[in-house]
Amino acid sequence: MSDSTAAGEGATSAARRSPETGTGTGERIADWADGRLGIYGLGRRYLRKVFPDHWSFLLGEICLYTFLILILTGVYLTLFFHPSMNEVTYDGSYVPLSGIRMSEAYASTLDISFDVRGGLLIRQIHHWAALIFVAAMFVHMMRHFFTGSFRKPREVNWVFGWLLLFLALFEGLLGYSLPDDLLSGAGMRLIEGMTLSIPIVGTYLSFFLFGGEFPGTDIVGRFYSIHILLLPGIMLALVVTHLILVFHHKHTQFPGPGKTERNVVGEPFFPNYVAKAGGFFFLVFGVVTLIAAVASINPVWVYGPYRPDQVSTGAQPDWYLGFAEGLVRVMPGWEIAAWGHTLNLGILVPLVAFPLWLVLIGVYPFVEAWITGDRREHHLLDRPRNRPVRTGLGVAWLTGFLVAMAAGGNDLWATHFHLSVNAITWFARVALLAGPVLAFVVTKRICLGLQRRDRDKVLHGRETGIVKRLPHGEYVELHEPLPEGELYRLTQHEQHTALETPPTTDEHGVRRRTPAVRRLRVALSRWMFGEGAQIPKARPPALEREKDHTPLQP
Fold first, then answer.
1. HSE on the CB side for 128, CA within 13 Å?
2. Of 87, 85, 103, which Cα lies nearest the Cα of 220?
3. How far is CA 59 from each of CA 54, 144, 297, rounded to the nearest angstrom?
4. Which has the closest alpha carbon to 124: 248, 300, 363, 254?
């Protein structure tokens, strides 16, 4: 830089400074804003907050970014969609449906797909983002479950995340139903049937929901209001609260050298993490756009407008509702007639089982905290193998979910693989009951085996691949001690001790009565942490004994 240029810039800078305080315009604006909003204090506290660097933490970012994509594309689609069931005659660009009577909702969906510039791409981005959003939340939630990050102080944040997933399922169902095509109309017919199966109030709820006899004339408009206003508003509030709590609590991290319950090892939020997060957002947006551009999804023009007297063959909902569809298909068509009323268990049981299955995973953190009685804060994550029962329960829950989801396509399995649909249905019924139990047992045994392997590595070291012949002719493989960091990673975890049954008599020999809740808690504690539920880890004395051996030992 030349002297004249530097002198000119210095004069300009001096001219911009206040004669009273000697501060620049930017500094005075920043001081004004900080005095009213407290930006400096918040920035100083949170912008340098440390975030650990692990690939699994990107799952939460995928959830956030696809949610933003849904908002952006949803706003665009609302400009052209007409949420009305009034019938019109279609005269748009799609010739095969020209002259067909249909609802304004379906006609506007066709217009978005064929007549609005970029409309089809935006529709497909919106739909693919919804699928990826729910999938990312699902995997993100299970990552938190298996690593135990739901423990104190994050129980409330777990509930917020669970509510987001629960609401996203219904948000996707409502959005899927808006085009009023034949496929989505079949889904609404199932909703009506489930509503009618509710004892006593089912008929009233159905009339209230659909505005009269199915399909009515108001359902698309009602679903539209809930889809673009009510549920997104609640979900946005939950997302903001969820992120605030993530910032408020120390971020969880996987165990390793230098990582404790009182610190966080990683990179600062600004500028390192912000730069990476910004790049990752555009990467996610680009991948979703690429998928939407090359993979067609929900081609409503193929299905045609909805008519109550027609149904599509091979109809399948979006993947996240396949679980509910499967429960309906595997449930026998049982009915109970009593006092002049018919109870349709074939629909009512799946209606109750669907939210109950989600509630089981939602309340688990509180059940585990009650069993362990642990009230401490936890910021280090568990390795799933070190919590065999919890990991087994999580895999069992996933197994039930996946079996029901696969059962939702029993007709497609039958037609594509030339199998009996009845045989597939009966197999799904058995697997839905026996599959989670088998998955729990197998997963628990695998975790115990991995614990034994870790214990052997700590006590005997790592295999070197070097085979040595001893003086008496025996061949052995040499082992070498693990690095200190690896030893810490394998032995830093705590192992809970199972609760003991309280004495049956007091100090005076008087028989005391143990409450049933206490006995249940002790039994569950023994099941989770008692003999056979975990392998005792290598203790420091054992490590000290191993240090006396030479670096290479048989």
1. 21
2. 85
3. 10, 10, 23
4. 300
